[in-house]
What we know:
Layout: E1 14-20, E2 23-30, E3 36-40, E4 50-57, E5 62-73, E6 86-93, H1 96-107
Antiparallel strand pairs: 1-2, 1-4, 2-3, 3-6, 4-5, 5-6
Amino acid sequence: MSNRRTGYRDRRMLDATLKYRGEYMQVDLFDLSESGAYLVGPCTPTLADSVTINIELPHLACTVMITGRVRRVGLSSRALERQGGFGIEFTRFYTQVGQNSLEQHLAA
């Protein structure tokens, strides 16, 4: 199976807040790239749903807010040794500063 995402992936676990259907919840974010991420949390959104995430980038002392569309659901992660989760594709960065911060984080 080929890798469809281009660019560097950060496979470290990051903390994030997910907004889904008006509810906020803490999630674990893993496998972050410029175009998407894998998340595990208390709920799994439906395929094609829109979600908003706030990703904490502690070494840059900032939080990045991004809207994404759910592209895969019900996945498991061998690296996280957890069942469930979902992959999102980023659709909108709320600020250019946020997008630049993510690029800087991935380059580090």
